[in-house]
Design goal:
Two copies of one chain form a homodimer.
Chain A lengths: L8 H8 L3 H9 L6 H14 L5 H8 L4 E6 L5 H16 L3 E6 L4 H13 L4 E4 L8 H8 L4 E4 L9 E5 L1 H14 L5 E5 L8 H11 L10 H15 L9 E3 L5 H12 L7 E4 L2 H13 L9 E5 L13 E4 L2 H16 L8 E4 L2 E3 L8
Parallel strand pairs in A: 1-2, 1-3, 3-4, 4-5, 5-11, 6-7, 6-8, 8-9, 9-10
Antiparallel strand pairs in A: 10-12
Helix pairs in contact in A: 1-2, 1-3, 2-3, 5-13, 8-10, 11-12
Chain A binds a DNA duplex (30 and 30 nucleotides) through helix 2 and helix 4.
DNA sequence: AATGATGGCGAGAACGTTCTCACATATGAG
DNA sequence: CTCATATGTGAGAACGTTCTCGCCATCATT
């Protein structure tokens, strides 16, 4: 009836006239019990409004059936979708989800990981904010906590990982622009963390075709690399002045940096934005500057956001399978938690070019 | 150095040559300890890579420092923002966040609440999917689990609650349209759950000015009520044919239902959409029908989504303080968890009308 | 008839903390 | 000198489960 306060297994056992061991067996569904006692216990539990205490259970079993996720920012559509994917498979498997934001800052990330580890999550999904140093993640591995990385890799950290094939996707997008006759294509990218030698050196190496360790590059650098490859393949020169570095992961930063490029004498005829946030900032800037798409300027965005399909014109975009990425990551993590012992896997998901109306043929 | 496997307080105590009680005092920061032993313990903990087990701690203290949230769908910008707000204050207070999706279906919601309760969260934030029956929430209250409702109320459930002042907000939006000269204004609303007597009876009662228990109405019905009030105040008749019921909470449903209204002989000159999802569906339909905003049709949307500011034209909208709502809810919940004992509070947050370019003066 | 396997049950130990004691020792007031 | 008070410590009991035993039936097999 009225479940007053918390009833424990001992209360149920007393009410049913059995030992706590038997009540535990019935309620926990492990070991043998006779039909008779089973019914008694179940009835008593019902009457008392018994609800198992997952804490106590986890303490002894060592399993919490909870996944921890460190995302950049739940509010960002990219993470929101990924999280929904993770949530889908977690829920289907009876797992709970402990979620935190890192705001792409490592101190917060470290703190989050520590919190989740203390709460004894069975595994972690992280979008690491620093692809170089990640002591906290290494020590997690050393402790044997299953870990899956999303969107980015960490140098020297051999764990399961799922990401978009950024280089191929960006290359495809930019080649699409080139095929449409564009010769001067601007790229609006975050490029927040410094590559060795800086942007210029990176451009020089990439343009020269020097081998680049691309696995542990930040997504925005990988997409820049795809942009450069497209140029190389199509035999087009890369003008460093067309590489726009927002310098921070915010729409405002992108918005601030776009006008200088657009209003320059040798302005590009097309723009490629490297993620949803850059896309937003760029769109804001274009509205401000009253540039029409695609008459004044063509654009291809990375990551298909809801509004891109009903914007006028429709925005041609490279859609990454965000939901599926989250689902894949969660599935891989659950496999590890179940104890499966593959060597670390990297799942690179293909992105799909969705043609709409934002690219003009020249 | 290398934190091999899990070290317990007993391990640390042994290594430091003190009792577990003393080690616990140092590590847990409760009770007296001498500087000398403190240092020994801390050093031992450091060496062993000791990490407190929050499970064991929670089991005995009865507090998990974890908040549970049942949202409709993390992927939806409304919930994503609210969650970010909740996350902000949770994090600032050292609380973790256990998040689940209900997909606005009560069976899933019940299951979520049960899961979170078993995991012993200190309090719950829920957007109830049924405003009438909610046995699981009542029993939560009976068990003494702090609970805060967001966006919606539940009949007979007296708990803290934060929501937008939907009626006032909708009224303001629609009056804005009327002031611009519009006389036939369509409303695109979800209106998924049946009001007593159905939509027609509701309209009749509202138009007649009958008292309506508006507190426990679904948001979309409240916004419809605001729409009707605006008409009453401005002395305009309400044409039931202008009330578009999507019937389910999806952009597709809205998109499917808009064309019939727009292409009718006595089509409205303006549209009011009652939430972000309806707005999206409506925008899709308008693109399909090739209607220009605001030349062919004016529009005001409820809930300011990112793209509305850089869409051309800018979309005039009623912005609800989503982030602040989440923050307020979390703060109220934390107060309850701390044991503060006000009578149940209802916080109605004002929405702000943001004028952009989607409303034509007639 | 003796043996072993199997179902069913309870006592009590674990899990890793915090908390309640009891018991020191030191300090200061009367 | 005695008593109260504050500071420091350790033994051991909680918290609510699951798990390991050991015990006792029952039943089939030698």
């Amino acid at each position: 009836m009225a479940p007053k306060s918390k009833a424990t297994i001992a209360d149920v056992a007393r009410a049913a006239g059995v030992s706590t061991a038997t009540a535990g067996r019935v309620l926990g569904g492990y070991g043998y019990t006779s039909e008779e006692k089973k019914e008694q216990v179940l009835k008593a539990a019902q009457n008392l409004g018994y609800r198992p205490n997952a804490l106590a259970r986890s303490l002894i079993t060592g399993k919490t059936r909870t996944l921890g996720v460190v995302a950049g920012d739940i509010q960002n559509p990219f993470y929101a979708s990924v999280l929904r994917g993770v949530s889908n498979v977690a829920e289907a498997n009876g797992f709970g989800l402990l979620i935190t934001n890192s705001d792409e800052a490592q101190p917060k990330e470290v703190h989050s990981v520590e919190l989740l580890a203390q709460k004894q999550v069975d595994g972690l999904i992280v979008t690491p904010s620093d692809t170089r140093r990640a002591r906290h993640l290494h020590s997690l591995r050393a402790m044997g906590v299953p870990l899956v990385l999303i969107d980015r890799a960490v140098a020297g950290l051999m764990v399961d990982r799922v990401a978009t094939d950024n280089i191929a996707a960006a290359e495809q997008a930019v080649r699409h622009l080139i095929a449409a006759g564009h010769r001067r294509i601007g790229i609006v990218a975050e490029l927040v963390d410094e590559e060795r030698g800086g942007l210029d050196a990176f451009l020089a190496r990439a343009v020269a075709g020097d081998p680049i360790e691309s696995e542990t590059l930040y997504p925005s650098w990988q997409r820049l690399l795809g942009y450069i490859r497209a140029h190389r393949i199509e035999g087009l020169p890369v003008d460093p002045r067309l590489t726009l570095r927002a310098g921070s992961y915010s729409a405002l930063a992108a918005q601030a940096v776009v006008p200088q490029l657009i209003t320059a004498p040798d302005a590009p005829t097309a723009l490629f934005t490297t993620d949803g946030t850059m896309s937003e900032g760029t769109m804001r800037a274009l509205v401000e500057l009253k540039r029409s798409i695609p008459q004044d300027l063509s654009i291809i965005c990375f990551d298909d956001l809801d509004w891109m399909s009903f914007h006028r014109p429709g925005i041609t975009t490279v859609a990454q399978p965000r939901l599926a990425m989250g689902e894949a990551a969660a599935r891989m993590l659950l496999e590890r938690i179940r104890g499966e012992d593959y060597p670390p896997r990297t799942v690179l998901m293909p992105a799909e070019l969705i043609e709409r109306g934002s690219v003009a043929r020249l």
